[in-house]
Here is the input.
Amino acid sequence: MAAGYSTLEYDAALGERGSRQSHVASLLKELTGAEDALVVNNNAAAVTLVLRSICEGREVIVSRGELVEVGGAFRIPEVMEQSGCLLREVGATNRTRPSDYRRHISPGRTGALLKAHTSNYRIVGFTGEVSLPELVGLGKETGLPVIYDLGSGSLLRLEPYGILGEPCVSDCVAQGVDILTFSGDKLLGGPQAGIILGKEKLIAEMKRHPLARAVRIDKLTLAALEATLRLYRDPERALGEIPTLRMLTETREALREKALRLILLCKDLGGQLSAVDTESQVGGGSAPGRTLPSAGVAVSPRALTAGRLEERLRGLDIPIVGRISHDAFIMDLRTAEEKDFPLIAESLREILGGEKE
Here is the structure.
């Protein structure tokens, strides 16, 4: 696709101009059950386009506990401001009820009800939130569209693999939400993109909006996203072939075996390397506070400190990134590919000197 021809905006069947969205929209509808789909360049652009096209000049009601800030200090209130909407905060930081939304709905003034998934933080203790089905019910009752900014969206149910608190996109669609937005990277495991799913009538308004041109997705990203989505037709294949999913779902037992294979490549370094159990964080704005049982290799250097080893490994042309614990440098192997083990071993050998016990 990068080097050759493509039918990006050409309908080969009809012999006329087509839409670049058709390449992925049909797959997204098939995989999620949504009426229609639109893809833009990232999720912030997706939220901006949604709000600008259907809520500009009106209030959007959102819980105080969901005024999310994502990486790079981008905040939901500021995105709403740039979209030409007025923010109406309701409830308290830790508890929001349906009555809080209902009390602030005003015909003609209120444009939508917005729910934002807290994908990068958790509020614990004396808490309460309005569930998506409750908010959808209120939207139907009042005739207002319900928008769900899912942030990091998953096309598979990940609870069986210990990843809790991340809603499945198709479940959200089935619950009747009018518009759903999420990222094409992160848990989905594709390229950076912003995916909008929802009611056909509302998506049609977004496609016609001038802002859609400014945030449209390019052909290389579309090709990568299409290839990723095709894998989801077979969930087992997706788990095995999409790197993000494969890494997230790998068991501690498998990672221990990987650690032993890496140590075997470094046998000339003597007792400086050992296999250890550890914990992985999901990261990427997903599953905040959750960890996964993992395993890796601990390096206890004899001739230099763990801090100095970490610094030198991080400074390589291809950085090797780990963490320090109990005076040892820990490499969690959950995100390490075995094809890179020879490079890792050679890097350790050069820095540690191949010294034997």
In short: The two ends are 53 Å apart (CA to CA).
